Amino acid sequence: MFCIAAFIVLLFMGAVSARYRRYLSKAWSCTIRRVTFRPCDTTFKQDVKDHLLAPIAVRAPAMVRPASVALEVLAVLVILTTVWSGYTVVKSGLNLYVYGTCNKSDSASCSLGAEACSIPVETPTFAESIVAFDVVGAFGNEFSSLGETISALPARFRDWKAADYLPEGSSYLAAYDEKKETALEVIDPGCTFCRQLFNNIQEAGFDDKYNLTYIAYPIAGTDGYKFENSLLVTQYLEALKLQPGSANAADAALDAEEVPLDWQLLERIFTGENDKGVSFQSRINSMDQPQVTALLEEWLTEFGLSPEEIATVADTAASDEVAGIIAENKEIVETDIHTVKIPTIIFDGRRHDGVVSVDGLN
User: CB–CB of 147/139 below 8 Å?
Assistant: First the structure.
């Protein structure tokens, strides 16, 4: 162990100072023999230990033996740290390649990936398991997560088709055109990065080139939802799709210029501001549910719905039918699309996790 640890340390020290490079060949020879379960045939280990322990032998001879033991323990720690660091680099690289984030459990913490709201993972982290003295669970969960990433590698090369993941009654921003390809985005109404993607889509004129639809996916949090009112807004979005005359895939006779009510609601949330310049999304995220309900119904009045129609929308939003639709959409996102970042958008044969730039949408 000591020879291997010494080689690791000398490798880094030799990179910055030539004086240590002459020891590398001996360290490498000793390391090769140790990893092949053979004893070292050089005095390298003893030479290094003597060099490190000599000052202690002069000043405090009684401390030589404890210091020698400490060096052996330190050598083990150096090796374990190096192995774990290498594993972390490999795992993070795979996650970045497959999911667009180096940390699946907290994608927002990875500066190398696209900006996004992370979907929390319920499985305890390695550190949390260790703190709870669950060593078996710590390593089991860690390698299970790595296995999931490796098994998801083929998805990176898959030809992603948005049409394969469309829920029933999908609503399109513009009238459905069979000549255009379909694009599907997964959004949380409360996620600020979803608002950013929405604005990029508008700026790029994305809906002129694709049949754009969406799945509203309220991100679950540790207690309820990550954004408190996302579920309520999603319920209203799904209820609007179910109203007679809603502009979904089956309404081929609708005026091409008509924007579906659910898309009008999304546009108001993602692009609108109050008289103080605060985005409506930020306001909704800070309101309680009665306030959000009142605001949504106020907007529906502005969109031209009668009080009776608004009451119907509210009843539908709270119905078991809408609850079932949201549950089915959740299954599509988590099991079929298997994203760990919101927003996610599928178009042009690829799944794009996180915010896509205007240039990336062109």
Answer: no
In 3-state terms, the chain is what percent helix, strand and coil (to 5)? 60, 10, 30
Q: Is 118 exposed, middle or buried (0-12, 13-18, 19+ CB in 10 A)?
A: buried
Locate the DSSP E strands across the chain.
117-118, 181-187, 210-216, 341-342, 344-347, 350-353
Tokens of 74: 């330190």
Query: Mean pLDDT, the chain, as a whole number?
Result: 82
What is d(CA 272, CA 276) in angstroms, rounded to the nearest whole number? 11
Q: CA 158, CA 156: separation in Å to the nearest integer? A: 6
Domain ranges of the chain: 1-99, 159-361
Q: Looking at per-residue confidence, does 143 or 276 come out higher?
A: 276
Alpha carbon distance 211, 293 (integer Å): 30
Closest to 229 measured CA to CA, from 182, 288, 184: 288
Query: For residue 327, what are the contacts with CB-CB under 8 A and spacing of at least 6?
Result: none
Long-range Cβ pairs for the range 300-303 (8 Å, 24+): 300/261, 300/265, 303/261, 303/264, 303/265
CA distance 107 to 114: 9
What number does CATH give the domain 159-361?
A: 3.40.30.10
Coil, strand, or helix at residue 143? helix
Q: What tens digit of pLDDT does each residue of 94-136 get?
A: 888 777 777 766 666 666 666 888 887 666 666 767 777 777 7
